[in-house]
Amino acid sequence: MSARVALVLVSHSRQLADGVAELAAQMAPGVRIFAAGGTDSGELGTSYDRVLEAVTAGLSAAGGVVVLADLGSAILTVESVLEVLDEGPEKVVLADAPFVEGAVAAAVTAHGSGTVAEVLDSAEHAGGTFAVREPKAPHSPVDDAGDVAQRTVVVRNPLGLHARPAAVLARLIAGLDAAVTINGANGASVLEIMKLGATGGQGLVLSATGPAAEQAIDVVATAIEGGFGEV
């Protein structure tokens, strides 16, 4: 299923916009991401025409667009474009979000067929991503019962849950019929997974609730213990 939402990345720098688009695209293959960086002559700044073209292309490609901008004048340019287009917030919206982290989070949610509102929410809650938190103490084992399941797994790949495996894992979990947490973090959020700072050999506590909790635990445990092709 193709993504329902496209992203537009507006930056004063063409290289920055293109680079963030490349990073987000690797995290979420298949999501349409349009970079609108720099002026028409390639200098630092923003271009109304480039932003308008990108947003229009996004609407044609996906039907909904979430825009991220890096600095104040880029935001003003986006707002001018949105005013002229006169599309409702259910179609096109500007995110109040960190440029890089917000783009990655938004792309992963869009990959999971998120709506404009869901993609926007992911982008705007992406702040503080790389303040790595202390690993939580393992929970006491519980009996798997009904729609609740729990298991401890070990990270096999030496580099741990860095960006690429975190994105793979978040996309996998987002498609499951269960809510899955990893050491208490939302398993469907690539940024929450990266915050864990999980390294090779570290144990992780998986918890799932929902109609397919046990199956979800099996799928996630298999993915983590498989090493994401890096073992």
UniProtKB/TrEMBL annotation:
One GO molecular-function entry: phosphoenolpyruvate-glycerone phosphotransferase activity
Domain HPr, first and last residues per copy: 148-231
Highest taxon of the lineage: Bacteria
GO cellular component: membrane
Catalytically driven reaction(s): dihydroxyacetone + phosphoenolpyruvate = dihydroxyacetone phosphate + pyruvate
EC number: 2.7.1.121
Keywords: Kinase, Transferase
One biological process term in Gene Ontology: glycerol catabolic process
PROSITE patterns: PTS_EIIA_TYPE_4, PTS_HPR_DOM, PTS_HPR_HIS
UniProt function note: General (non sugar-specific) component of the phosphoenolpyruvate-dependent sugar phosphotransferase system (sugar PTS). This major carbohydrate active-transport system catalyzes the phosphorylation of incoming sugar substrates concomitantly with their translocation across the cell membrane. The phosphoryl group from phosphoenolpyruvate (PEP) is transferred to the phosphoryl carrier protein HPr by enzyme I. Phospho-HPr then transfers it to the PTS EIIA domain.
UniProt protein name: Phosphocarrier protein HPr
Organism: Sanguibacter inulinus
Chain's gene name: dhaM
